[in-house]
Design a protein that fits this description.
This protein is an alpha/beta fold. It contains 7 helices and 23 strands.
């Protein structure tokens, strides 16, 4: 019997054939059960021990790699896989992209019952130093990320995913002086002056969590991102990978294909980044967002960029009344949360009856479900974007066109 971190189970020899949506390797036991194995690579032959089991599936840990996959590489991070921030540092980047593409296309087929397939993944090629924001957790003494599938903190001194100024701020937080510190309030902006942003460590007084954003302090001057000539002041949600966000937004703009004679509605618009990026081509554009602070930030972003034809309202995307001026838009963008569109939101979208819908999604399964639910529309094309390299997450952008009746 194997004794591994409290696991007691006989050994099993398995061959990994693919990955699940969380990045775990997938194999089968001799009795036919599916087994999920963290940090496995497609093609690995492994000796594993079960850590949990059900009638049709199980989870296992690797005891020994009997024959390594050709896609397996030596992780370049000293805290991987203990830290739960990355999923794929043991894979070549080419295999990671292939795994993500398979995930998208499997969801389209199995969940959506669609013939549509994504042909490739857009990527900047930058797998390190791309994140402009991070949330760190503390056990009261050290800062880090949660270990995989736990709320235990794995201490981090430097993260390969983060921009340099975030790592500098992390170092100051973790190893700064013991001077008294004010209460943490809101995100800490990386940059100078660090002391004014309360980044000195006070002995045994680190807060439970700290948000770091790349750039200077958000008060003076404001924290900004620039994309394709547009300025966005950051308040609330913004894509954590600016380079990949540009790839995604350009694809959404291409799919929308708006002219100055046409109108656009952007549901779940947040701070208005997509509304402005795509809506600059329209004659009129409207962003809909439930969070009041995000709406105010979106209006400020429209003003900063000189877009008088773009407006924003505070409303629930599933129940708002567009009024006669925007009752039948030419195009609607939806970028819902991970859970996708509610049945009410699907009904609202269908009632708007736009000529085309651009659907941006961070979950291929809920995207595929919603594409199937949007009756009267055909998913004409889809593109995947690697917004989060070295993790199992993937972003998609899809264009739907109304069928002729």
């Amino acid at each position: 019997m194997a004794q591994i971190s409290g696991i007691s189970e006989k050994m099993h020899t398995v061959t990994v054939t693919g990955y699940n949506s969380g990045g775990d390797g997938v194999a089968r036991l001799d009795d036919g059960r599916v087994v999920f194995i963290r940090n496995a690579a497609r093609g690995d032959v492994l000796e594993v021990a079960l850590e949990s089991a059900r009638s049709r599936s199980a989870r296992a840990v690797i005891v020994r790699v009997l024959s390594p996959s050709p896609y397996r590489v030596e992780p370049d991070c000293p805290v991987y896989p203990e830290c739960g921030g990355c999923d794929f540092r043991h894979l070549s980047y080419g295999e990671e992209l292939d795994a993500k593409l398979r995930r998208v296309n499997d969801a389209l087929e199995r969940v959506g019952g669609l013939a549509l397939r994504a042909g490739a993944i857009l990527t900047t090629g930058q797998t390190s130093g791309y994140r402009n924001k991070a949330v760190f957790h503390s056990d009261g003494d050290s800062l880090g990320f949660y270990k995989a599938q736990t709320h235990d903190v794995a201490p981090i001194s430097r993260c390969l995913l983060l921009k340099d100024d975030l790592n500098d701020a992390l170092k100051a937080l973790a190893h700064g002086g013991d001077a008294p510190c004010e209460t943490f309030a809101g995100p800490i902006m990386a940059g100078e002056p660090l002391a004014a942003q309360c980044v000195h460590r006070q002995r045994r007084s680190l807060p439970p969590s700290i948000t770091l954003r790349s750039g200077r302090n958000g008060l003076d001057p404001p924290l900004e991102e620039r994309l394709d000539g547009l300025i966005f002041r950051i308040s609330g949600f913004f894509q954590v990978n600016t380079g990949a966000a540009l790839l995604l937004y350009n694809k959404a703009r291409e799919y929308a294909a708006l002219t100055k004679r046409e109108s656009l509605i952007d549901l779940y618009c947040g701070v208005g980044a997509l509304t402005l990026f795509v809506g600059r081509d329209a004659g009129r554009a409207l962003g809909v967002e439930l969070d009041n602070a995000a709406v105010e930030a979106a209006r400020e972003n429209a003003r900063l960029n000189g877009f008088s034809h773009i407006d924003f309202i505070k409303a629930d995307a599933a129940s708002w009344d567009p009024g006669p001026g925007m009752a039948n838009p030419d195009c609607v963008i939806v970028d819902p949360p991970r859970k996708g569109l509610s049945p009410c939101a699907v009904s609202k979208l269908l009632s708007l009856a736009p000529g085309r819908i651009v659907y941006v999604s961070c979950d291929p399964a809920t995207l595929a479900r919603d594409l199937r639910a949007l009756k009267g529309y055909e998913a004409a094309d889809i593109c995947a974007v690697d917004m989060f390299p070295r993790t199992a997450n993937i972003e998609c952008c899809c264009i739907l066109v109304r069928r002729c009746v």
